[in-house]
């Protein structure tokens, strides 16, 4: 049995689906079902006894303790987090509560559980913390990609809260001996991605004939990682990772945002052409967000060297699969585009 937090969100749900497609080890899935948590992501697991869903808050120590006592998980995979930079600018308090206080609560509950295990179970137990490349700050055009030893320089409330959680995880290993691992990933994309993020937002807006808002000059560079590749990397870290170690996970796909948008428009022109003309006509440049990091890039050689992991998808194969998934799952998209989501879009893009 493993315990997954945030397993109804984008990456967490993909991980749960991927896990149960590759093995029969059950999953206890703890998710608060905030705006980005969606049980429709897990609809294919309805009635599957291997998947035990629990709606709850990672800050609820009593609940977390009860889950450890009842299910005796051999590992925890911690995805649960507030993760959108723009939302962190508008409301940083939620990010501190979930990402910092929530991680602290999980660490303490895991430590209490781990200390009660016998020696063999103690040695086998793992607390895997899923983090982001944004903790490292911003790179210049010619700077080397982020390695695991890069100094932390977070520039947004989101990345600062994730950096704080990373430091807590490290400290609980070095102070208490808790067997932790951490992975810092680049930008994920793929099925079930909530449409506040670049790729699903562009697809949803294009299909609706709405403007495709591009921040600033669109030359912000990110490394793009297909979500199922991220899932396989986490499985590799759980199986073979060394306690106390950090593994950077990237897709080896550095691309500027505007190139991503043009790629999406070209794929939509091919797969669902609009009689009004190319979707690229909808591209609209808007005022950049405050403190927008210019470039992220991941050096993923350590995880390849030590654990034998490399991404299976190229950006070209992954982005085509992503667009095809969204076109085939328009009902899912329609359910996501609720009044609450529209309110958020109005808040974030008003005046830009």
TrEMBL record:
Keyword Lyase: yes
Residue ranges crossing the lipid bilayer per the database entry: none
Signal peptide: none
SUPFAM superfamilies named in the record: NAD(P)-binding Rossmann-fold domains
Reaction catalysis annotation: dTDP-alpha-D-glucose = dTDP-4-dehydro-6-deoxy-alpha-D-glucose + H2O
Cofactor(s) annotated in UniProt: NAD(+)
Record GO biological process: nucleotide-sugar metabolic process
EC number: 4.2.1.46
Record bears the keyword Secreted: no
GO MF annotation list: dTDP-glucose 4,6-dehydratase activity
Residue ranges annotated for the NAD(P)-binding domain, each copy included: 3-322
Keywords per UniProt: Lyase, NAD
Protein family: Belongs to the NAD(P)-dependent epimerase/dehydratase family. dTDP-glucose dehydratase subfamily.
Name of the featured protein: dTDP-glucose 4,6-dehydratase
The organism of origin for this protein: Zoogloea oleivorans
Gene that produces this protein: rfbB
